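Milestone 3.1: sequence recovery, worked example.
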């Protein structure tokens, strides 16, 4: 069985082993695949892996041998599911591999905003401490998060893990979720308006849908405290980026930290790249070594289940 991975570099830039996939068939991996090379590289494949490479109806129609698409991520909007169904192609994704990693990164971003660890480390290494008059100093106000209120938009696996960590820090936890399922102990379910008004930190953990597209915009930002922080480790499209930049530059928000942007890689003129008090990381919340190792094994498990005739994690 021929297996082609179209864009394997971000999952495994060389620090993991492909052995779990190599033993399942004739495996070929490409670091990246531009649109014009998809058909040539996958023409003989019965199984394709993709992370972000788009598999459109037009492309799938040119791959008659294809029987399985493994999306090596949770989101699968890069695959035309209707076309896949029409060609009897199984499509699977991977869930839950990065829950701990993304929750950890959420607090890395929050602590970056409140403790400014890197700023003070750079200052000390630059000689500011050596030349200081006093035995300690700080270059910007430092904020304690214990006792503060964090509002979570989305309360799935990641949101719930963030809530647990927040409670351990001594924070009050508010959450808004689409489903009517009950929240865990210590989590208060509220409407969005209350969440925006009451929260010292708003953290996004919901999927990007028609309802959540640009849920953070000028109107919702205006409801937040000027001392509040916004964190986005969900999807870039959850935020109207110009509105957020305007709020930061006008000091209507204390700070923001984002791991995702609406276009990735971003355009050079993305307003958040030059906004005041905005931390940006390049979509790395999921990318911890252990998280990628877990993802790779789950991808292999999906294939093995398909080969047994019992596919799991099927989205189409």
């Amino acid at each position: 069985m021929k297996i082609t991975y179209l864009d394997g570099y971000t999952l495994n830039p060389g620090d993991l082993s492909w052995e779990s996939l190599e033993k399942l068939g004739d495996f070929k991996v490409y670091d990246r695949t531009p649109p014009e090379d998809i058909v040539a590289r996958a023409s003989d494949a019965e199984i394709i892996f993709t992370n972000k490479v788009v598999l459109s109806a037009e492309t799938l129609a040119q791959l008659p041998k294809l029987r399985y698409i493994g999306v090596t991520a949770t989101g699968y909007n890069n695959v035309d599911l209707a076309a896949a169904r029409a060609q009897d192609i199984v499509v699977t994704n991977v869930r839950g591999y990065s829950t701990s990693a993304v929750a950890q990164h959420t607090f890395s971003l929050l602590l970056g905003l409140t403790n400014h660890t890197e700023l003070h480390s750079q200052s000390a290494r630059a000689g500011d401490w050596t030349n200081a008059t006093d035995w300690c100093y700080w270059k910007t106000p430092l904020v304690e998060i214990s006792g503060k209120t964090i509002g979570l938009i989305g309360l799935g696996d990641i949101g719930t893990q963030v809530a647990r960590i927040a409670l351990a820090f001594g924070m009050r936890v508010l959450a808004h979720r689409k489903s009517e399922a009950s929240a865990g102990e210590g989590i208060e379910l509220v409407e969005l308006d209350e969440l925006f008004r009451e929260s010292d930190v708003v953290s996004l953990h919901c999927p990007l849908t028609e309802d959540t597209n640009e849920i953070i915009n000028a109107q919702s930002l205006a409801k937040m405290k000027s001392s509040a922080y916004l964190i986005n480790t969900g999807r870039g499209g959850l935020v109207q980026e110009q509105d957020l930049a305007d709020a930061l530059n006008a000091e209507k928000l204390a700070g923001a930290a984002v791991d995702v942007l609406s276009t990735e890689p971003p355009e050079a003129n993305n307003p958040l790249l030059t906004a005041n008090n905005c931390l940006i990381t390049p979509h790395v919340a999921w990318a911890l070594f252990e998280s990628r190792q877990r993802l790779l094994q789950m991808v292999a498990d999906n294939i093995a289940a398909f080969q047994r005739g019992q596919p799991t994690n099927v989205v189409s």
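The CA atoms of residues 103 and 161 lie 6 Å apart. The first strand starts at residue 2 and ends at 5.
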